[in-house]
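Aim 2 progress update. The chain analyzed this quarter is reproduced below.
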Amino acid sequence: MGTPRASTCAPGWQLHPGYGFYRARHEIGRPDFGFHDLRHFAATMAAISGVRCQEAVNARKKNLAKRMTAPATAVEPLQLA
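Predicted structure tokens:
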């Protein structure tokens, strides 16, 4: 019978978030490849390219802080009477 496609799901239902990953894993013939392995692969590629982990973490933190403060600065302060 197989796994349902997104178009065959009932309204309001969603496929498992990892469906695309598991499908791709099956298609390349690597059922042993785990989702967490992607993190290891990304860290290895970053190290090979010369990026240190701490640099990547700090850049991510700065980006996240900037995105989190943007809505707060875009809204005008509430005027109390």
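The helical segments are 19-27, 37-48, 53-74. The chain has three helices and no strands. These observations will guide the mutagenesis experiments scheduled for the next reporting period.
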